[in-house]
Specification:
- The chain starts with 5 loop residues before the first strand and ends with a helix.
- Strands 7-8-12-15-14-13-11 form a 7-stranded mixed beta barrel.
- The protein is an alpha/beta fold.
């Protein structure tokens, strides 16, 4: 069997005490098979049920005994039949004996693979509540030792998942069964996990096994004459969605050997000669440096690259409190002493325990492989083992450099005015809410532990992928009940503590917000205002009238004044949709703030272009040029904010080309040039195709044409 291939036998307890959990057992095992169909299509899976009314297995036929154990699915390459075998599991009527099931599954693996090297695994899911039959000879512990010896001989591992809902009665039979399972663990052939909720059961079974691969093997250099042999593995790494491949349906349906593969070829062509393909030896990368592009060849880039030597060096120690948790970056790595190297194990353990006692961490400089272009600078935290035969180790977290740190200063809540701070009653109500939703209350297991909480997005994806394989036109199904428990608080807790939630609502007075429309675009456009040069000077008489009006408004009701201000800032949606002659810029901003559909922004820009064109074309002796200038400035800012630079640049260019023969219009473009209203360059909007030099050259062109 290949190294990356796995032989797996699922041992599922279907006895009477497991009936309520069988739906979750079906779900988690089906997910395991779905992931194997995606990632490990050559793996082989078998299914054994125990606690059934019937008996059907080879050992019962050959030796007798092993009652109430049924081989539901023989070991073979995973396929749709394997997944179907996990649906509608029978509800057994007999108490399950998990030792008999383990022996039957072990016998299946040995007969199927023999002494073939490869990964072989048993997966036991049970509540271990029923007494086990006494063996013909010796004790039950002796029987466990015999089974463990055979598992070690054939390099077979076992995952044991014990599912018992919280609050249940614990008796001596359960204690004895737990001790037997822990004895498997002590013999280093099994891992035992106890869960108490369907959600944790869904995450307890590792549905995708990733082979442990070292990212570094070498010396942890403490000094020039003190080095420890270590291996470094990834401890955590984000599980991503499987890669979607391009698929072609051009092959005839009758062609069974069609690969449906899509090949993508790229061609680079010259701007000056669009029909000419530029070969690789005539292409070079360039980097923007101010207004120019600096070309750098691959040979020059290789020479510039930093090429440190492979190795891990200790730079020193620091107090644990001096390295805050929010500085940790990327994945977590695990440093373990070289297996079988007694000196390395003792040295690593001594350093780890000294760091633990002194509350210190180590700072390392790491280069994982030769030729690596970057250096990892990080913190090493001791991990003292509590399990026999497992040496002490370290966890490594990458730390940021100065360029990676984002410092954002916020005002302290204590500096806010008393009116903006919570009262004692409000504080007490929120404290009670936090206590109510505590995921680790005293006397109970922690809810949603990361080790046992699956990613709901990935689980939903695999469910839908399986459904689409059967029904191509199927819609996404509703979210599974177990996954709902991950994405929201427990409904039972909310119902039970309804009085606390009501008290929280009563503690905070809610008022209607008179704001009627989204202000994102409105605020962004208003924060800078129009350019000073583009604004009309205020008439002195108008300024005086404004002061008189503001003094009169001071005597009005403050709420009415606030509502009037909000109405002015965020006009009603009924008024948005048309640009009028009175306040065209405000009408334009109101249209941008409306956003009733995805095309609304483009509609607002198009309306403003039409209105501005009309002003420029029908301006007797330049009478409307000042208003047209204000419209140009507002349109330009909006196109930058909304990432539509081409809309403005094409509009200005086309308008100039169409009207440049008219003397009055040329004077208007001179006004634009004097106010520095240029084309939108790439420096202002990344989507623009206009460089700063091109924008300035357009300005020069308009000035030259007027001379």
């Amino acid at each position: 069997m290949a190294r990356n291939k796995e032989g797996l036998v699922l041992l599922l307890d279907v006895g009477p005490s497991m009936h309520q959990a069988l739906q979750e057992v079906e779900n988690v095992c089906s997910t395991l098979v779905r992931k194997k169909l995606v990632y490990n299509r050559s793996d082989e899976v078998g299914i054994v049920l125990f606690g059934t009314k019937e008996t059907c297995n080879d050992l019962a036929k050959e030796l007798g005994g092993y009652k109430h154990v049924v081989v539901k699915h023989d070991i073979k390459v995973v396929d749709e039949e394997t997944k179907d075998a996990l649906q509608n599991l029978p509800r057994g009527t007999a108490p399950g004996d998990f030792l008999d099931a383990i022996v039957v599954g072990l016998d299946m693996l040995i007969k199927r693979f023999g002494n073939t090297k490869g990964k072989q695994r048993l997966c036991l899911i049970t509540d271990a509540q029923h007494p086990l039959r006494d063996p013909p000879q010796g004790t039950k512990v002796d029987q466990v030792d015999t089974i463990a010896d055979q598992m070690k001989k054939h390099d077979i591992k076992m995952d044991c998942i014990v599912f018992r809902e919280s609050g249940g009665h614990h008796n001596s039979v359960m204690d004895e069964n737990d001790q037997l399972l822990y004895h498997f663990r002590d013999r280093s052939v099994a891992k035992v996990v106890q869960v108490d909720t369907p959600t944790s059961l869904l995450g307890a079974l590792k549905t995708r096994n990733v082979l442990p691969v070292t990212i570094f093997r070498g010396d942890l250099e403490v000094s020039s004459n003190f080095k420890i042999k270590v291996w470094v593995y990834k401890k955590t790494s984000e599980e991503k969605f499987p890669t979607l491949k391009k698929y072609s349906d051009k092959a005839p349906p009758s062609d069974k050997f069609a690969s449906h593969e899509v090949k993508v070829d790229y061609e680079y062509k010259s701007i000056l000669e669009p029909d000419t393909v530029v070969p690789p030896d005539q292409r070079i990368k360039g980097y923007l440096y101010g207004p120019q592009v600096v070309p750098i060849s691959s040979a020059e880039w290789e020479a510039v690259k930093f090429k440190p030597e492979k190795g891990v060096k200790l730079l020193g120690f620091a107090d644990r409190s001096s390295v805050p948790r929010h500085y940790f970056m990327k994945d977590v790595n695990s440093f373990v002493p070289e297996p079988g190297n007694t000196k390395a194990i003792v040295a690593a353990s001594a350093i780890a325990r000294a760091m633990q006692e002194m509350d210190k961490v180590a700072i390392l400089r790491c280069v994982w492989r030769q030729g690596q272009g970057s250096v990892a600078f990080g913190v090493l935290t001791p991990n003292i083992s509590s399990v026999k035969n497992v040496p002490d180790s370290f966890y490594f977290n990458v730390l940021p450099f100065a360029e990676d740190v984002r410092e954002f200063q916020f005002r302290s809540f204590s500096r806010l005015p008393p009116s903006s701070q919570p009262t004692e009653k409000q504080q007490e109500a929120t404290d009670n809410l936090v206590k109510m939703l505590d995921l680790a209350p005293p006397g109970r297991e922690e809810i949603l532990r990361p080790d046992f909480t699956p990613n709901p997005m990935l689980e939903r994806f695999y469910n839908y992928l399986d459904l689409k394989s059967k029904e191509p036109d199927a819609n996404p199904p509703p979210l599974d009940t177990c996954l709902k428990r991950i994405t929201g608080p427990e409904p039972d807790v909310i119902d039970y503590q309804a009085s606390l939630i009501q008290n929280l609502g009563k503690s905070f007075e809610l008022k209607d917000n008179p704001k009627r429309k989204k202000a994102r675009t409105q605020e962004r456009l208003a924060y800078a205002g129009l350019d000073d040069q583009a604004k009309k000077p205020e008439d002195p008489s108008a300024e005086k009238a404004k002061r008189i009006d503001s003094q009169a408004k001071k005597s009005e009701d403050p709420d009415a004044e606030k509502a009037r201000a909000l109405e002015a800032m965020f006009p009603s949606t009924e008024k948005a949709g048309k640009i009028g002659d009175l306040n065209p810029v405000q009408d334009f901003e109101a249209m941008l703030a409306e956003r009733s559909s995805s095309a609304w922004v483009l509609k607002a820009i198009e309306e403003m272009k039409k209105y501005t064109t009309d002003l420029v074309q029908n301006s007797p002796e330049g009478g409307y040029y000042q208003k047209a200038l204000e419209c140009f400035v507002a349109l330009r800012k909006a196109c930058i904010i909304e990432q539509e630079p081409d809309e403005f640049n094409q509009f200005v260019t086309e308008l100039y080309e169409r009207l440049k023969t008219m003397d009055d219009v040329v004077k208007f473009f001179q006004l634009l040039a004097s106010k520095n209203v240029l084309l939108i360059s790439k420096a202002e909007a990344s989507d623009s195709d206009v460089t700063e030099e091109m924008a300035r050259s357009f300005l020069v062109k308009t000035e030259a044409s007027s001379q």
